[in-house]
Amino acid sequence: MIHIRTDYNELNSEAVYVCGITTAELRAAGDKAYHRDESISDIASDCPKCNPHPRQLGTPLSQLSGRPGHPGFDKFCEIARSWGYP
Prior knowledge:
The protein is α+β, with helices and mostly antiparallel strands. It has helices at about 25-30, 40-45, 75-80; strands at about 1-5, 30-35. The radius of gyration is 19 Å and the shape is elongated.
């Protein structure tokens, strides 16, 4: 899991995370953290307490269709063109 760190302490053992996890717990779980002001933090953080409203990227597959005349076909074609398909 990826957490968001809110401090700039020199000692990692004194780090402060949005969700309240301690550095020892973070390491024991094999989790990672990014500083809050890093541009990737709001995308990469999958901790529900650190990032309760993650930014959505892309188009959900459920909104696409490869069948002409069906909802989502126009978006499917738009994405295909962006990858170089005619």
